[in-house]
Specification:
Blueprint: E1 5-9, H1 13-21, H2 32-42, E2 45-53, E3 56-66, E4 72-73, H3 90-104, E5 109-112, H4 121-126, E6 130-140, H5 146-151, H6 155-166, E7 169-173, H7 178-192, H8 204-212, E8 218-225, E9 228-236, E10 241-249, H9 258-272, E11 277-279, H10 286-294, E12 298-307, H11 312-328
Parallel strand pairs: 10-11
Antiparallel strand pairs: 1-2, 2-3, 3-4, 5-12, 6-11, 6-12, 7-8, 8-9, 9-10
Length: 329
């Protein structure tokens, strides 16, 4: 029998980030400062678990919980926040985590696996995980060039770039105050067009702007149409794969086609900074999927897991109840 998986907590951002950096599945959403920022914004409790095998740290397991008498899982409006451990230790880590939940009174936890973490269905089933598959879109930047970025787009996206140039669209680094003003507007419009309110508070733009100040691993670009700011986009570049987190352009400027230019600038920035790929983060709906594939992205799947230490029948019922509650919230 192999050495057991053990968990401990850390309060050292350097230890956490160094372990994150060793994983091929690392994303900007795993970084200590990002998790602390979002926990502060939403009032979550961030439990930074260090995963050890045979006494040697092998990875991290970020746990995000809503406070309360019975801790409930947070439901982050960004993906991929889950365990980063070597593939051969993932099933044992998931099993050990259920024991941790039992000891700490956490009946349900929800987390994702990074798209680069690809366990087999058999491994997930053997680990006793309740899981579903979601999708994201990734653009490979290895051996790419500015010319290949454009060549990798479909005909409509290339035409949008040309149209944007004719429509006096420009993309530049966001000016002071623009992220504060425009990010909440873009997020609100993006969610409301799908019939749901934005999960982000109005202060999200100001919080992101302060957090990103003086950092060289965060991209925040603004699209300008005939001198008028039409939107912003934020990408996290602390890991080899850039996570294009959130943003876009306001619908009132749609006729000028600024969105393609804004995303293209993120890709140029990612390429210029030596990143291996850019993850456009999520599928959302068919229209967004078509837009992301038009930029040259390919679909990648990732697992969303609901973990519970309860017996199987009770676990299935509890997970179903939690999922129904999330749909109503």
């Amino acid at each position: 029998m192999g050495a057991p998986i053990r968990f401990s907590t850390t309060d050292d951002p350097r230890e956490w980030n160094s372990l994150v950096a060793t994983s091929p599945g690392a994303t900007g959403f795993h970084d200590w400062s990002w998790l602390q920022l979002q926990s502060d914004v939403f009032g979550w409790r961030f439990v930074p678990l260090v995963v050890a095998h045979g006494g040697t740290p092998i990875g991290v397991f970020p746990v995000l919980l809503r406070p309360g008498r019975i801790p409930r899982p947070a439901d982050p409006p960004f993906p991929f926040v889950g365990p980063l451990v070597p593939a051969e230790h993932l099933p044992d880590t998931l099993r050990a985590f259920r024991s941790w939940q039992f000891r700490h009174g956490v009946p349900i936890a929800r987390f994702d696996l990074s798209p680069a973490v690809t366990p087999s269905e058999a491994d997930l089933d053997r680990a006793g995980a309740e899981w579903t598959v979601d999708r994201t879109y990734v653009i490979d930047l290895e051996d790419s060039s500015p010319e290949r970025l454009v060549a990798g787009m479909n005909r409509n996206a290339r035409r949008s770039l040309r149209d944007a140039e004719r429509n006096a669209v420009a993309v530049r680094p966001a000016a002071p105050g623009e992220t504060t003003a425009f990010l909440p507007r873009v997020l609100s419009e993006s969610y409301e067009v799908r019939g749901v309110p934005s999960p982000y508070p109005e202060e999200i733009g100001a919080r992101i702007e302060r957090w990103a100040a003086d950092r060289d691993d965060v991209y925040i670009g603004a699209a300008v149409v005939a001198g008028e700011t039409s939107g912003v986009i934020v990408a996290l570049g602390s890991q080899p794969v850039v996570s294009v987190w959130a943003g876009g352009t306001l619908r009132e400027h749609r006729a000028a086609n600024p969105s393609t230019s804004l995303y293209h600038d993120v890709l140029r920035w990612s390429l210029d900074h030596g990143h291996t790929a850019a993850d456009l983060v999520g599928r959302v709906d068919d229209g967004i999927a078509r837009f992301k594939t038009s930029l040259g992205a390919t679909e990648r799947s990732y697992a969303t897991i609901a973990s519970s230490p309860l017996p199987r029948a009770a676990r299935t019922a509890a997970v179903s109840l939690w999922q129904a509650t999330q749909r109503r919230s």
